[in-house]
User: Which sequence fits this backbone?
C-alpha cells in the first residue's frame, strides 16, 4: 500500500472520530440552553414569598405558587401510593416467571401502556373517576399519573430482580424459608436500591406531565388539600400563565418552570447518588 | 455399619425425560463424612439436591424411590420442614448481601420469623461461628456486612449459617471448588472437626479430597452408583473395574 493511501485512511479515521465527538457534545447543548433560559428568566422572581404565598388577582403585584407546589406534591403522592404496590408486585411476578403466557401478556401490556399518549390516559381517568364522582379531583389526576408511572416501575423492578443471583434464592430456600418470605425478606431487599431508583425516575417522569391533568386535576387558583377537590399543579400553572397575555404572569411561569426543573433534576441526582452509594455487593 | 441418618433406596431422578440419577441406593452414617464423587455430569449434585428437595425448583423434575431421614420418608414431609432438618452448603459462597455477619448466622431463624431472646441469639451466633472456625476472625466485626469477607471466610459463614439451624445432616455441594488451595485446606480441616458433632454428605469431583476427608465414599458414574463403601477399602481394593479406572485417572 502506498503512503498516500495510508495517510488518507488515517485522515478519514480522525474525521470520523471528530464527527462522533462533535455530535455527542451537540446532544448536551439543548439541555444547557433550557437550563440557561430558565435560570435567566426564572431566578428573578424566585424568593421565599413566591414559594409560600397564593396567586394574587390579576393586576396585584406579588403572589406565589404555593397552591401549585402543594397540588403537585399531592398528585405525586397519590400516584405513588397507587403505582408502587401494583408496579412492584407486577415486577416481582415478571422476574419470577420469565416464560409463560400471563407473563408474556403482562409484559406486552406494559410496553403498549408506555406508548399510550398521556392525553388519552387523562381521558380514561376522566371517564372512570371524574364522571362517576361528578367532580374534578386530585384523586383522578393522581390515578392518571399512576397509570403513566406504572410501566417505569414494573420495568425497573423486573430488571433489578432478574439480576439477583439465583444462589441467593437457593440459600434462603435451603434454610427452610418459605417462598413468600424468601421473596419479601431476601430477594426484594437485595434489589431495593434498583426498585427505589425506578420509583424516583417514575416520579421525575410524571412530575412535569400536563396533558393527563387537564381534565382530571383541572387546576385551582386557591389552596386545596382535599384529594376529592380539584388542585393546581406546577405544569398546569405554567401552561395557564404562559398562555396569558400579561407579562407579570409570564415571569411567574418562568419562576414556576425553574422550580419544576430544579425538582426533576434534583430527583435525578438523588437517584444517581442512591444507586452509587447503596449498591448491594453480591 | 453404625446408626444411619439417611437411607436412599432405589432412587431415580429425571428432568424432562432425561434420566439423571438411576436406581441409586446408599446410606449415610451418623457423625461421619460420606463423600459422593464422580466425573462431571454423573448425577452426584442432582442426588444431593434431591435430598433436601431443592430440585423441586425446576418444574420439569420428577423422582421415584425413597429417601428416609431417621426412617421418615422426606417425600411425605413438607419440603420446608425437610430443608430445616437438612442443611446445605453450596458450591459458590452465598451469604445474604443485605445482612450483617451476625444476621447471616441467625438468618434461618430470622427469615422464618422465629423470635429468639437476645442471649439465645448471641449464644447461637457464637457457637455456630466457633464450630465453623470463623469466630476469631470476625468477632470484632459481627455487625459488618458478610459480603466483605474473603471467599473462604464467606463459605465458612455459610457453613455457620447452616449449622445454626442444628440440622440432622449437612449437605455440601463441592464447597471448595470456588476457593483457593489455602482456603480449601482450611475447609477440609474444618470438616474433620465438624464430624464429631454432625453428619456430613459431601459432593466432590476431587478424588484426593474424598480420600483425605471422608469415612465412606460413593462413586457415581453416568447416573449409576458404581460402588459404595469404606473410603479406605474403596481407594485401596476397589471392587468394580470402573472405580479402579477412575481412581487411576483413566477417565473423568
Assistant:
Amino acid at each position: 500500500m502506498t503512503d498516500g493511501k495510508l495517510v488518507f485512511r488515517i485522515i478519514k479515521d480522525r474525521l470520523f472520530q471528530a464527527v462522533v465527538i462533535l455530535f455527542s457534545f451537540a446532544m448536551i447543548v439543548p439541555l444547557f440552553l433550557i437550563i440557561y433560559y430558565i435560570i435567566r428568566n426564572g431566578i428573578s422572581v424566585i424568593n421565599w414569598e413566591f414559594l409560600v404565598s397564593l396567586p394574587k388577582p390579576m393586576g396585584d403585584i406579588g403572589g406565589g405558587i404555593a397552591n401549585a407546589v402543594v397540588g403537585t406534591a399531592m398528585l405525586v403522592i397519590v400516584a405513588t401510593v397507587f403505582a408502587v404496590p401494583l408496579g412492584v408486585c407486577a415486577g416481582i411476578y415478571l422476574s419470577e416467571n420469565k416464560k409463560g403466557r400471563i407473563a408474556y401478556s403482562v409484559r406486552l401490556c406494559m410496553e403498549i401502556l408506555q406508548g399510550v399518549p398521556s392525553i388519552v390516559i387523562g381521558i380514561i381517568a376522566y371517564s372512570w373517576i371524574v364522571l362517576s364522582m361528578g367532580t374534578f379531583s386530585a384523586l383522578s389526576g393522581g390515578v392518571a399519573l399512576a397509570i403513566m408511572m406504572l410501566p417505569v416501575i414494573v420495568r425497573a423492578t423486573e430488571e433489578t430482580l432478574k439480576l439477583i443471583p439465583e444462589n441467593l434464592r437457593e440459600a434462603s430456600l435451603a434454610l427452610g424459608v418459605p417462598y413468600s418470605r424468601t421473596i419479601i425478606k431476601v430477594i426484594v431487599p437485595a434489589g431495593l436500591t434498583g426498585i427505589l431508583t425506578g420509583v424516583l425516575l417514575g416520579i421525575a417522569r410524571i412530575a412535569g406531565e400536563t396533558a393527563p391533568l387537564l381534565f382530571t386535576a383541572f387546576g385551582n387558583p386557591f389552596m386545596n388539600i382535599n384529594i376529592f377537590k380539584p388542585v393546581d399543579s406546577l405544569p398546569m400553572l405554567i401552561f395557564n400563565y404562559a398562555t396569558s397575555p400579561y407579562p407579570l404572569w409570564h415571569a411567574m411561569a418562568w419562576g414556576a418552570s425553574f422550580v419544576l426543573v430544579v425538582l426533576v433534576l434534583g430527583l435525578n441526582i438523588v437517584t444517581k447518588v442512591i444507586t452509587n452509594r447503596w449498591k448491594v455487593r453480591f | 455399619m453404625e446408626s444411619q441418618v439417611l437411607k436412599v433406596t432405589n432412587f431415580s431422578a429425571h428432568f424432562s425425560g432425561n434420566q439423571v440419577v438411576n436406581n441409586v441406593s446408599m446410606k449415610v452414617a451418623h457423625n461421619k463424612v460420606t463423600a459422593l464423587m464422580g466425573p462431571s455430569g454423573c448425577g452426584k449434585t442432582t442426588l444431593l439436591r434431591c435430598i433436601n428437595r431443592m430440585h423441586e425448583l425446576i418444574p420439569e423434575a420428577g423422582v421415584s424411590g425413597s429417601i428416609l431421614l431417621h426412617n421418615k420418608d422426606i417425600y411425605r414431609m413438607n419440603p420446608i420442614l425437610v430443608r430445616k432438618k437438612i442443611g446445605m452448603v453450596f458450591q459458590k459462597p452465598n451469604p445474604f448481601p443485605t445482612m450483617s455477619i451476625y444476621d447471616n448466622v441467625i438468618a434461618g431463624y430470622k427469615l422464618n420469623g422465629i423470635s429468639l431472646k437476645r442471649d439465645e441469639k448471641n449464644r447461637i451466633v457464637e457457637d455456630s461461628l466457633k464450630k465453623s472456625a470463623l469466630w476469631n476472625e470476625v468477632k470484632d466485626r459481627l455487625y459488618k456486612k458478610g459480603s466483605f469477607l474473603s471467599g473462604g471466610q464467606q463459605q465458612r459463614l455459610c457453613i455457620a449459617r447452616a449449622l445454626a439451624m442444628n440440622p440432622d445432616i449437612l449437605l455440601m455441594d463441592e464447597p471448595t471448588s470456588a476457593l483457593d488451595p489455602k482456603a480449601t485446606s482450611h475447609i477440609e480441616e474444618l470438616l474433620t472437626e465438624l464430624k464429631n458433632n454432625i453428619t456430613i454428605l459431601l459432593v466432590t469431583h476431587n478424588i484426593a479430597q474424598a480420600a483425605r476427608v471422608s469415612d465412606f465414599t460413593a462413586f457415581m458414574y453416568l447416573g449409576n452408583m458404581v460402588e459404595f463403601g469404606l473410603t479406605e477399602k474403596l481407594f485401596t481394593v476397589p471392587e468394580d473395574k470402573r472405580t479402579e479406572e477412575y481412581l487411576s485417572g483413566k477417565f473423568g
About this structure: The interface with chain B takes residues 165, 167-178, 181-182, 185-186, 189-190, 192, 280-282 of chain A (CB under 8 Å). Chain A has two domains: 3-45, 67-278. The mean pLDDT of chain A is 91. Residues 3-45 of chain A form one domain.
